[in-house]
Amino acid sequence: MESVLQDVGQNFKETLKMIKEDVERMGIDITNVEDIQEPPKPEEFPLYKEVGKWNKEVLKIGDGAELSGSWWIHTEAAADLFWYSRTLLAKTYRQLCNKWHIENGDDYGKFDHKYTGYVLKECLAILKKSLRELIASNQSQRKELNSILSELFKLEKQITKI
Known about the structure:
Layout: H1 2-26, H2 46-68, H3 76-103, H4 108-136, H5 142-159
């Protein structure tokens, strides 16, 4: 996950460099481009750390199920759980950065805020659906999965307010 976030930061730097070059080539004055600041690192956002902790619990349950040879680990619901738990973490950081940009007067954050909010809501819906399916069909890890779902409901309230 850390390398993905580093890639996003690097892509942003490269994009900004290309924009500067294109603007200069076109003769457009954008004197405030240098004023754009980079948002804080993921660990500096408390909500990101909470979602990261939740994600680790999801992965821990998955690791336990895989080691014990549980059948449910190979279901579509499990695949959705593991994929979207990671996506939720990445998109939560992105949305926190969008909010940070907006609060710091950068118009950049406004552009992406609405769409990332939509993506987060979709991720949350898929995660809740997959967890409910897994809970209904899984006696051996029902308690752990219920705990994960309960925590997701708490996080959802904070994530959708970003």
